[in-house]
Hints:
The protein is α/β, with parallel strands linked by helices. It has helices at 13-16, 22-27, 53-76, 93-103, 119-124, 127-134, 163-166, 169-179, 197-206, 221-231, 247-252, 255-262; strands spanning 4-8, 32-36, 39-40, 81-84, 90-91, 108-113, 139-143, 154-158, 182-189, 211-218, 236-240, 267-270.
Amino acid sequence: MFKRILFATDFSEPNLKVLEYLPQFRELGVEEVVVVRVINLNRLIGAAGGVNINEYIEMCQKEAESKLVELISRIESFGLKAKPVIPVPAGDPVNEIIKAAKQNDAKLILMGSRGRGLIKEILLGSVSEGVVRKSDIPVMVIKHETDVKRLFDRIIYAHDLREHSERVMKYVKFVADKIDSEIVLVHVVEKEERLIEDELKAIEEELSGFKFKTIIRYGTPHKEILRVCDEESATSIFIGGGIPETVAEKLLGSTADAILRYSKVPVFVAKS
Length: 272
Ligand code: AMP
């Protein structure tokens, strides 16, 4: 399912900690890691005049290429094949990461996230949120400050009974089968009048044969999902990346956005 994945790196120390998880991706059947570093031209916007863009790009490319060589051999030391995206692309990181994934036929994008908080980050926008929004293939976002050791031992499968959550099922089952994960199926009821028993039963039937338990909560989905995640000491959260459907989601952003922003554990988002 995930023979070739794309790792997006900004070469920062915390981003490179994501590499420590690669042996766990090997357990999932990953064979090759394509590494992309984007020269971020958004940073140049508003910079003082007189910058020769071509010279700037060339200089950054040289610097990036030598760092990529080091990275590739680090990845190979985990027993994985690795290759850099060369020439190092220059442009908007989100678009270039998506393009690199397509051109290399990657099945998953693996990336870090600085988390939110600094004004600078809010102004510049989040690369991981942008990639999640635009990607057709699954994205796994590992927060830079996370302290999870084993990613897939105890996974939360957040299901809102809509189709986009159901699409995540195949990934949950695939991972649980490979790693022998425990699955915590979480559903948050927003409107009490809705009858959920039959729908949940159907989902539970699909999970029969796996180690799983179901937790039903009432309230705001992302808050309850994150609360369950803490209570259950879960190691990652699997969610469907929904295109906003309700008016509230369009105004406030989706549950997926909020989980990505506030989760301390890695988040796997799949849309297809
Ligand atoms: P965020 O904190 O949401 O902006 O996401 C940071 C993550 O985005 C990093 O850990 C990388 O995975 C990725 N990223 C950010 N900038 C770049 C870049 N210039 N080239 C490649 N990946 C990047």
